[in-house]
Amino acid sequence: MTMLITGATIIDGLAETPLQGQAILIEGKRIKAIGKADELLVADDILTIDATGKYVIPGLMNANVHLLCDIRPETLIRYEGRYEELIAESAQIALKNGQTTVFDTWGPRRHLMAARDAIDAGQMIGSRIYCAGNVIGFDGPYSPDFGATMAQMLSPNFVNRINSTWVENSGRHLMWMTPDEVAKELRTYIAKGIDFIKYAANEHGGQSLGAFISFSERVQRAIVDEAHRAGITAQSHSMSVEGLHMSIAAGCDLVTHCNITGPREIPDETLDYMVKQGCGAVLFPWSDAALKWMRENVDDGTWTTVKATDANARNLVKAGARILLANDGAVMASEMLADPMVQKSWMGAPEEISLGRLATGHFVWFEAMEEKGMAPMEMLRAATRNIAIAYKKDADLGTLEEGKIADLLILDKNPLESAKNYRAINKVVKDGADIDIAALPLTPLLTRPLPEPLPEEAEYKHFAHTGQRFPLCACSAMMGH
């Protein structure tokens, strides 16, 4: 397939200003050339796309998603043996909304890799997937790291089957080991075919709300060194000021949700250290509208943490950190989003301001970062080039250049004029193919509508409803952790 895109303003992610009067020639899966349309040598059988008045940008990337995140027993029992279908649905929703490449930082390794490989082979449509499998040092879905309460309602056999599917040899038992022993286990895990590693600098939640350090400095350095020895990148899950500082010192290529540091703001010393080391800063920002919504819906203790998170995002922009777009993007079943407990969590916020939705959370990210003073071109790079560089995929992805993979979006409106214009997607091109985004997802499972209420539901009177107000993450929200 040869494709020629003409007439558009090209924002390639490299130049400081858009390119005018240029066309993009695509042959096969890669960009053949960028230049004046009448100077490009093209074949007779060519698909020409007239994009006059429109804007072409690199395909968007997301540095932190969870393509199988709905880990409620209701979902994992119903779809056992079909997890690749759930992952495919998520990858198609991401692609439909302009995310041509996503990095899955926690999920069932074998199933993620199967979906990844099927998409790469052209057997399945979806965003390009890179995956880490488990977060090194975390236990499984039905453990204190995520949803131990659910384990009480399930058979030991099912709990063990699910936890082992997520964890394998990469779980909490590593915390007892020496650096050399951890490196050996990690070597085994990397050899299974993951694309990068993510480890727990801080624990996930529990009673400490993520404050506890999971691994010593020596072990963290050993984890990062082992990843780099294998030629893949290393990132950490950080949730405290000290967890962030240790991650940078260990040599992480990027730190996930580095602006989440409990009720404490990141000191200037650590901000400067992060910038100096060139560590990628994966941010979860709240928009002004989302902050207003949370102030009205969360408890005072949670609000203290949210305020610090917001201040950290603004300070990282001012400090000049290399910022990466991410949002814990996930697809949640309709019945989960209808849960009154979830509706009072950050996942339950109205979709137009909700950061964590895989379909739309990246649009919210742009709008939030615009409010925090991030420059328009830097926002685009945070969603393209910066992610490609941090994950060492920039030889093929992240910018529009001759020889690179032809992943791009055609927008009806200029994204440099307003962050809201990222929503104005006209076409998605991935691997040089014009994607039929209207048809995605091909087989709705989690995104299918709620069934019609039973006749009995009109007569059923609830005795009471209780529930936690603000779980920190999507998984905790679902599991009542």
TrEMBL record:
PANTHER family: ALPHA-D-RIBOSE 1-METHYLPHOSPHONATE 5-TRIPHOSPHATE DIPHOSPHATASE. Pfam families: Amidohydro_1. It comes from the Bacteria. Transmembrane segments: none annotated. InterPro entries: Amidohydro-rel, Metal-dep_hydrolase_composite, Metal_Hydrolase, Metallo-dep_Hydrolase. Residues 55-432 form the Amidohydrolase-related domain. This is Amidohydrolase family protein.
